[in-house]
Amino acid sequence: MAVWIQAQQLQGDALHQMQSLYGQHFPIEVRHYLSQWIEGQLWDAVDLENPQEEFKAKRLLDSLIQELQKKADHQVGEDGFLLKIKLGHYASQLKSTYDRCPLELVRCIKHILYTEQRLVREATNSSSPVGGMMDSMSQKYQQINQVFEELRLLTQDTENDLRKLQHNQEYFIIQYQESLRIQAQLSSLASLPPADRQLREPSLLSKRATVEAWLTREANTLQKYRLDLAEKHQKTLALLRKQQTVILDDELIQWKRRQQLAGNGGPPEGGLDILQSWCEKLSETIWQNRQQIRRAEHLRQQLPIPGPIEELLTELNSTITDIISALVTSTFIIEKQPPQVLKTQTKFAATVRLLVGGKLNVHMNPPQVKATIISEQQAKALLKNENTRNDSSGEILNNNCVMEYHQTTGTLSAHFRNMSLKRIKRSDRRGAESVTEEKFTILFESQFSVGGNELVFQVKTLSLPVVVIVHGSQDNNATATVLWDNAFAEPVSEIHTHILCF
Fold first, then answer.
1. How many angstroms separate the CA atoms of 387 and 371, rounded?
2. Residue 461 phi, psi (nearest 5)
3. Which domains are assigned to the chain?
4. Cβ contact 385:458 at 8 Å
5. What is the pLDDT of residues 116-135, one digit of tens each?
């Protein structure tokens, strides 16, 4: 059965996810009226990492526009008139959007088709008798989405409380200024004749007493509002940290494990798009709460009231910074691993990706990623934060790449298309040791600026282990087999360090 027919039968959150794939970049009407044609094209035959494949993408774009125009021309009668105009408009729109970047159209449609297939597969497996595992996965996904909804409501609640606090504080400041004005009037009575002073003084004294009593009560109320708001933020951050732990320490680690097994002949890892959607939701919620905490701190500085709130806000700010640090540094991953076996003077590729996408505006100052080859011993020292000298075990050509943001898919990634290992430094081998017994890894590192340089992170991640064969040497006769599972003692070969700048 065609994917589009099954996709239209999705329900609930799955249907919402499917609908969110479409927009001005690719209207859902185009998917509907050209569903058979779209699913019949060889989109996977276009290598998005190879700019020379652009001519294939251009042919697909031209064919898509022709099919749309043909569909529009076949519309007749009164009912078909509006559809004819709409389809013609979409043809012009798609040509204008992708004519200069046809590979982006292929990237967009591949993303749509893959996501639809995943949603249909999950819905089918969860309803079948043998879909117990998928059903369990769907329940887990549902729990994650429920927590996100709870976080959304908590964040909206604190936003409302913060606005109320700001309104009350602004009124308090106005009344405080009124008390100063009354005090100034009382002071000026000293220059008046006694009769005039006795006539005006009682009224001013009464006003001052009333305003001061109100200010005392309202100061206590404001302090309570601040403490209540801080306690709500503590609850939100505790839930945020728990949700982030599930996504980063459970789901993302499982994805990395699947990627590792896929390198040894296992099934494709998949599931990266839904991980990115969760990481994007995390980043949005974290940033909203961080901005709220900063606004609360600004209100406290604007009107200092003695109490424990200063210490609480300092603690909250430290906690939210730790949470966002863990998110950014942990979601810098290797989407496409370098080859298991590297040969000097031979081109190879790799792709790194930041799973928070464009949500923290990292792409506004596009980061540059650097790739370095290091030995297994250097990697282990780096994992233990013992290697701070940035030693390398060789030289890689074309090892710098700027991360690019793809608007259609929301991905922020760096595609190393033409790296080449120029030379390698081996450790001394003795006896019958094979070159394949010495393992290396590719270290990718970058610096991310978040929130307009409010926070700057130094991030690093390690590839799965590789072995190196020197071109033109006796290494060519070696049997290059790497068991990635046992290469490093650590189950996940990533490191994350950060520098915070305020």
1. 16
2. -150, 145
3. 3-127 (1.10.532.10), 142-327 (1.20.1050.20), 332-486 (2.60.40.630)
4. no
5. 888 888 777 655 444 444 45
